[in-house]
Amino acid sequence: xxxxxxxxxxxxxxxxxxxxxxxxxxxxxxxxxxxxxxxxxxxxxxxxxxxxxxxxxxxxxxxxxxxxxxxxxxxxxxxxxxxxxxxxxxxxxxxxxxxxxxxxxxxxxxxxxxxxxxxxxxxxxxxxxxxxxxxxxxxxxxxxxxxxxxxxxxxxxxxxxxxxxxxxxxxxxxxxxxxxxxxxxxxxxxxxxxxxxxxxxxxxxxxxxxxxxxxxxxxxxxxxxxxxxxxxxxxxxxxxxxxxxxxxxxxxxxxxxxxxxxxxxxxxxxxxxxxxxxxxxxxxxxxxxxxxxxxxxxxxxxxxxxxxxxxxxxxxxxxxxxxxxxxxxxxxxxxxxxxxxxxxxxxxxxxxxxxxxxxxxxxxxxx
Length: 367
Known about the structure:
- The chain is an all-alpha fold.
- The chain is built from 17 helices and no strands.
- The protein is about 75% helix and about 0% strand.
- The protein is elongated.
């Protein structure tokens, strides 16, 4: 086939038909009983069939212009699903990894350059869910780690190329939904393991799964810091700090009820950095006096969480430093002298000093 293509002999439809026939033939032959006597070779040929189908459909769309983008997307998604099913059937991490690479490369390979975030991240959500299910069922943490990496690359690539202030609510939803999916998959996998073995103790694989889910939960903090540094996004301060508050509450809850506790400390550090960045880059007259209302929940959260932890008998001292997240509350009070320096309406001091006094009393009570 390669030789004939070099000489330009077969027409593009014949090339596509040859590639499809070869890929499907390999998959069918490897399902025969005689082929399964040579499992390693059969798995390698299955992977070859998957790779041939991926390359054929991509070439048919990009090089030969025989099929349009939606059809190509559907065909490549079908090949990915086939790879996932074969990886389970044959217990082959190699086939699963090939399916993962093909699945995540599909949107990039057939991209039209148009902004379609719902289609893109809807596809990635389904792909993450399917690969997560395979990963927990077969104990392949590599799949979840690679899925997290590629999803993050797609998120930030979309932010860099397409994000506008009008799409900020959608972007926030995109950065929230994938951590929720990661922890839902983790909890489902743990319950499944516990149901099959009542005396089940966490294995090395499960610890890796938990570590990947924790990283997925903390990654959106970087997006909050980024939004604070861009005035066009930081101008929508209610969305920004609402998003950050939801993240910090979620991380505090995870730290309290299942760990790791460093997530709470990460949330506290990100809150301080986000407020500093926002006041330096994005604060404007329209934020007064809402800034006083927005900072209060963060101060309350970091003062209340250690108190709640003690009442629940889950003290935040597991890593020797997680209890220090409470220091974020008084640190955030730096916003008040900054406001005195930059906000002319602080010349009427009652509102600002009233809010400051309330928060200082709360910090003193906690101390």
